[in-house]
Amino acid sequence: MATPIPSNLQNPTSNSQPKSWNIKFISYSSSVEFKQNLGFHGTSLRTDGRSWRIAPVKVVDTNEFTGFTKSSMIHDDDDDTVPLLSSSQVMEKLKAYRGNQKSKQNYLAMYSSVVGGITTDSEAMVIPMDDHMVHRGHGVFDTAAIMDGHLYELDQHIDRFLRSATNAKINLPFNREQLRSILIQTVAASKCREGSLRYWLSAGPGDFNLSPLGCDGSSLYAIVMQDQSPRLQEGVKVSTSTIPIKPPQFATVKSVNYLPNVLSKMEAEEKGAFAALWLDDDGFVAEGPNMNAAFVSKENMLLMPYFDKILSGCTAKRVLALAEGLVHKGIIAGIREGNITVEEGKEAKEMMLIGSGILVLPVVQWDDQVIGDGKEGPVALALHNLILEDMKSGPASVRVPVPY
């Protein structure tokens, strides 16, 4: 049953004429302004011979009010016919949909090999429904940060991207240099100087079958985005994931099959934690849903799990290289990659999560165990500053300038 409309918008008194209202109908297709004599009838109004129910709206003025959207203006005719839209109407609705979205991420440019070009219109950033990445999860992806007009570790991420593609049995539609050029041109078109570039390689569109044999060929997509969310700096809590970890064959591939990762993250959030940590089949520390884990032992050693059963983190590997400087300064005693037990992890002096989106994030609690003194540790802070400095002024091997 529709909610009654406000009293000041009720039926005119019996001896009055229908009042003239200036009503702005805001729909997914466009904003259309009507200036007509409208007669309100209970919880509905009629105009152009059509009846509409009115859900609660915000009254801005008694002579002019706005707020009608798809959910507040509901066609109330007897039939429930779904409209047949033209391509231009679809684009109008997609544009309005994007305009009404409340997101902390802005999408500035997209490349699609399906259309063979770049667009800066967010409503046009779409992919075919019969793309096998959509309905079968047959696709891989990777990400590179954009800092001060440079792409950070682009080549390292591309190398991992190509390894993932090989393991997923997806052929690249271009050679490596063409791929690299497309990604750089997409960032240049976006004008983004600080954000991130994410790109996908799919088995491609063609049909809804399981096998990619019917696909027209692989497809490449890339999007440049800006995230307005503040970067986390304070220590966070993690939990131990009860969601089964991916077997090594899939964990070492950066594919779009992220359901275990999503469920693990959701489980952590339900427990009031930032992320959940996976253990491998032998009970050793593995990784988080989209980040690596590292520790500072009681002996002041920087510890990180082997990459043979988990995703090889580009940022984690760079942190290990930069951490050599901390060894030379005597801040840490050394660096060790290997198996880490839960007991060793929870008794560590420091714990941290490492990833391209969070850089180096201190962990102050794991399940019910407080890590160290429960505060952000000096090694995590030092590593965070090192990776941030590397992003801003590191060598050419990790910083690729964008020709805007």
From TrEMBL:
GO MF terms held by the record: catalytic activity
Q: Which InterPro entries match?
A: Aminotrans_IV, Aminotransferase-like, BCAT-like_C, BCAT-like_N, Class-IV_PLP-Dep_Aminotrnsfr
The molecule here is called: Uncharacterized protein
Q: One GO BP annotation here? A: amino acid biosynthetic process
Top-level taxon of origin: Eukaryota
Q: Which cofactor does it need?
A: pyridoxal 5'-phosphate
- State a single Pfam family of this protein: Aminotran_4
- Protein family (similarity comment): Belongs to the class-IV pyridoxal-phosphate-dependent aminotransferase family.
